Automatic annotation (TrEMBL), chain A:
Its main location: membrane. Coiled coil: none annotated. This is ABC-type xenobiotic transporter. One of its GO terms (biological process) is doxorubicin transport. It is an enzyme of class 7 (translocase). It comes from the Bacteria. Its EC number is 7.6.2.2.
From TrEMBL, chain B:
InterPro entries: ABC2_TM, ABC2_TM_bact-type, ABC_2_transport, Nod_factor_ABC_transporter. It is found in: Cell membrane; Membrane. The chain crosses the membrane at residues 25-48, 63-88, 109-135, 147-166, 178-198, 234-252. It comes from Streptomyces nymphaeiformis. The keyword Transport applies. This is Transport permease protein. One of its GO terms (molecular function) is ABC-type transporter activity. The keyword RNA-binding does not apply.
Length: 318, 261
């Protein structure tokens, strides 16, 4: 039996005549990771700001941790933790002082506050830097301190707005690990990201937000199934070889500029062998063969391609 | 926890945070102290003879006595510029967004600033007062009650200017803008009775100088410390303090309660 951590219905928000959120519905079960995926300016941050009581929606209703967002804002605040896109640490004071500030604001006793602060600083590898002003921290350290501060109040629902934007690959993987551990403790995580890989790696459910609307929602697998399947791509360097192959493999999609052919394929070994046999039988020798399985990039581009089509699609070589 | 004890607890926490800032980075507060101290020394040691001669005789020590009360209030104006700057700095930081999403007493963010700033003002006034005493200012005739009233006036005046400065800081997009917007707080004392009596100013200007917030407070402080005539200035000063406090309070609250950007 799962209960709902976040339920939003028809949320709208506009600034002037620019509509940022155009009626979005979301349901996030307790103890899961939900990713709101979208390009810059899609309205991700606005959605987080509304759900975390920072701004009010123009229309729609939402419940967070079972409390109405507008009528019981203070109860919502008691249940949530928010780590925004821009670091929410006090740079003028030390990491430890930041943590103790949070402990005080969460009304922990002095002893409890010191214990929790020390524990979290250790968990996020900040013990050594604890006595230094937070303004001297690196981007990754600031982000870790930020999350550590969010955790002081033991929130049941955590909002992370682009938690890994601007982090180097190592810090990003550390952050992913941190997020996974949070959910292991039963916490619900609502995160926004513009990285498809991140949503694929972390999220139980993903909603793709585009132009203020939810373009699609489901698990990573469900989303991948929504778009046409994979293919095999054969690339040639010799134009003559390309032309003769294209004549033989008449069902292949042609890309005359790149001298490449695309054959539909599910990427299985059997299917691959069939294709290779056919190529051998016809004496076709491609200079490069890549197997392309649909990933979230394809979903993302398929769903959000309103104005620009990506010049180059991602290939995953097998 | 009851609303009141929650408010008290969170305000104390916020106050501690602001005092920690002030202690860690005292340069801003100390810089702001320089202006009144420099003016004090300038007007006593450089212009002193001319000023006291122009005011109808008396020697330099008379002019010191005349000057110090106004400069004490100017110190408050100067200190609250720092308040506007630090509030503006704070509001542009992500930490305020964090505070807004926490189950804390909402007003504590601002009241923490106000109390911290009033404390800083009082300390600054004591420091400038000490300089005054060092160069010869004496207020030996004042009774204990008058001293108490003078202290109360300084605190009230600091509270009023602080609330206005908080409002200025909240509407300023950055520290530079806050510092510019708060300029009247340092400019008004220059056109008050700090340096010369109002009745020696051009006739058309006298009403402006006489009824702006600083002059009544200065005249009241002078009366309390030196025994000069206070007259209606006491009530005027009190009225200004209450009015500015209320204005600053509702202004700041309205800005803070607006949606975050």
């Amino acid at each position: 039996m799962t209960t709902t951590a976040i339920a939003a219905n028809g949320l709208r928000k506009s600034y002037g005549d620019k509509t940022v959120l155009d009626g979005i519905d979301l349901t996030v079960p307790e103890g899961t990771i939900f990713a709101l995926l979208g390009p810059n300016g899609a309205g991700k941050t606005t959605a987080v700001k509304i759900l975390s009581t920072l701004i009010t929606a123009d229309g729609g209703r939402a419940q967070v941790a079972g409390h109405d967002l507008t009528a019981q804002a203070q109860s919502v605040r008691a249940a949530i933790g928010v780590t925004g896109q821009f670091s929410a640490v006090d740079g003028l004071i030390t990491g430890e002082e930041n943590m103790l500030l949070m402990a005080d604001l969460n009304h922990l006793s002095k002893q409890e506050g010191r214990r929790v602060a020390a524990e979290l600083l250790a968990r996020f590898d900040l013990t050594e830097a604890a006595k230094k002003p937070a303004s001297t921290y690196s981007g990754g350290m600031k982000r870790r301190l930020d999350i550590a501060m969010t955790l002081v109040g033991s929130p049941r629902i955590i909002f992370l707005d682009e938690p890994t934007t601007g982090l180097d690959p190592r810090s990003r993987h550390n952050m992913w690990q941190i997020i996974r551990e949070l959910v292991a403790d039963g916490v619900t995580v609502f995160l926004t990201t513009q990285y498809l890989e991140e949503a694929d790696q972390l999220a139980d459910r993903i909603a793709v937000l585009n132009n203020g609307k939810i373009a699609a929602e489901g698990t990573a697998e469900e989303l991948k199934r929504m778009i046409p399947g994979g293919h095999i791509r054969l690339r040639f360097t010799d134009p003559d070889a390309y032309r003769s192959a294209a004549t033989t493999l008449h069902e292949a999609a042609r890309d005359d500029e790149a001298l490449a052919l695309q054959l539909p394929s599910d990427g299985s070994q059997r299917n691959l062998r069939t294709i290779l046999d056919r190529l051998d039988a016809s004496g076709i020798e491609a200079d490069e063969l890549t197997v392309h399985t649909p990933d979230l990039d394809d979903v993302f581009f398929a769903l959000t391609a309103t104005t620009t089509v990506p010049a180059q699609q991602k290939e995953s070589a097998r | 926890m009851s609303t009141l004890s929650l408010a008290a607890r969170d305000t104390t926490t916020m106050l501690r945070r602001n005092l920690l800032h002030a202690r860690r980075y005292p340069s801003l507060t100390l810089n702001l102290l320089l202006t009144p101290i420099m003016l004090l020394l300038l007007f006593v040691y450089i212009f002193g003879d001319t000023m006291s001669a122009g005011m109808g005789g008396g020697d330099r020590s008379d002019y010191i006595a005349y000057l110090v009360p106004g400069l004490l209030l100017m110190t408050i104006g100067s200190t609250t510029i720092g308040t506007a700057v630090s509030v503006s700095n704070d509001m542009t930081e992500g930490i305020i967004a964090r505070f807004r999403t926490m189950a804390i007493h909402r007003g504590s963010v601002i009241t923490g600033h106000v109390i911290g700033s009033v404390l800083q003002s009082v300390i600054s006034v004591v420091l400038v007062g000490a300089v005054g005493v060092a160069i010869g200012f004496r207020s030996t005739d004042a009774t204990a009650l008058e001293w108490l009233a003078a202290f109360a006036l300084l605190v009230l005046f600091a509270t009023a200017l602080t609330w206005i400065a908080v409002g200025m800081g909240m509407v300023s997009p950055n520290a530079e803008a806050a510092s510019n917007n708060a300029m009247p707080l340092i400019f008004l004392p220059l056109i008050s009775s700090t340096f010369v009596p109002v009745d020696q100013m051009p006739g058309w200007f006298q009403p402006i100088a006489e009824y702006q917030p600083f002059t009544p407070a200065i005249e009241t402080l002078r009366g309390l410390l030196l025994g000069t005539e206070i007259g209606h200035n006491g009530w005027l000063a009190l009225a200004w303090c209450v009015a500015l406090t209320a204005l600053g309070y509702f202004w700041s609250k309205a800005v803070f309660d607006r949606d975050a950007k």
